[in-house]
Each structure stands twice: as C-alpha cells, then as structure tokens.
Write a structure and sequence with these properties.
4 strands; 4-stranded mixed beta sheet; alpha+beta; 147 residues
Length: 147
C-alpha cells in the first residue's frame, strides 16, 4: 500500500508527518498527475474539475517523487521535488474548499475515499508549518511498509 512521506530542508527532528494510512492521498496524487496524459480514473477527473472549474493551480500538490531511487533519473526527480511550502499550503487549502463546496462530482469521490480531504487539509497545515519555520518541503511516496 503506498504511503506519503514528507521531507524538510534543512532537516528538522520536530517536523510533523501525515498521520495514519495516507494511501487515499497517494492515489489521488498519482491519478491527478496522470490526468495530463489522458488518465480517466475518477480521481483524474476530479483533478480536471479542480483545475478547470475551480481554477486551482495543482502544480504544488502534484510536485512529488518516489522515495525509492533505482536510477539516476529517479535521483534527479527526487531532488526536483523540493519546493517552497507556502504555495503548497495555499493549494491544499483551495482544494479542501473545493471539495467542501458541495460540487456533486467531488462529493462522490469523498464517499469512496473518505480520508482524502482530511489528508489534503493536513498536508496543507504541515506545509504552512514548514513555511513558518523557513523550511522547504518535499512530498514523496513509498511502497515500502513503515519500519
């Protein structure tokens, strides 16, 4: 099961992490990213609604990388995933507002993925924390179980 892991630069031992099972968020990020390549999963469609109808720039939310580096290209993608946390926090806030708007197609998605909106909101809060602490943030996913 995929999970989301956050990194901070510079490293901070007190940095928060997303709580619990983050697979809903990991799936959303992957499917939303795939929308630009024609992905037609319900999560891809939701990302198109967020972009098109709600005019949300999803780039900060869709800036993420695989933690497991197997090639030089993987290492490069992991390094490119660092970002300023303020725009990520703002993006997450806008996405949560869109899901809370009552838009039926988005509401239907939350029925199937009940933790998604909470996880996006939590990511936004953590990004805001990082911005206030003067840290950069990197959103990554892992298929490896927690140790």
């Amino acid at each position: 099961m995929p999970r989301i892991v956050l990194d901070f630069e510079p490293p901070n031992a007190d940095a928060p992490q997303l709580a619990g099972d983050t697979s809903d968020l990991a799936y959303f990020l992957s499917w939303a990213f795939s929308a630009r390549y024609g992905g037609n999963h319900e999560m891809s469609v939701a990302s198109l609604i967020l972009r098109g109808e709600f005019k949300i720039d999803l780039r900060p939310l869709l800036t993420f990388a695989d933690r497991e580096v197997e090639t030089e290209a993987d290492a490069d993608m992991l390094e490119k995933a660092w970002q300023e946390p303020g725009p990520l926090a703002d993006c997450c806030d806008r996405v949560v507002q869109a899901f809370d708007s009552g838009e039926k197609r988005l509401s239907a998605l939350t029925e199937e993925y009940p933790d998604l909106v909470r996880q996006i909101g939590e990511l936004g809060q953590i990004a805001r924390w990082a911005a206030n602490a003067g840290l950069r943030i990197r959103v990554t996913f892992s298929m490896e179980p927690l140790t």
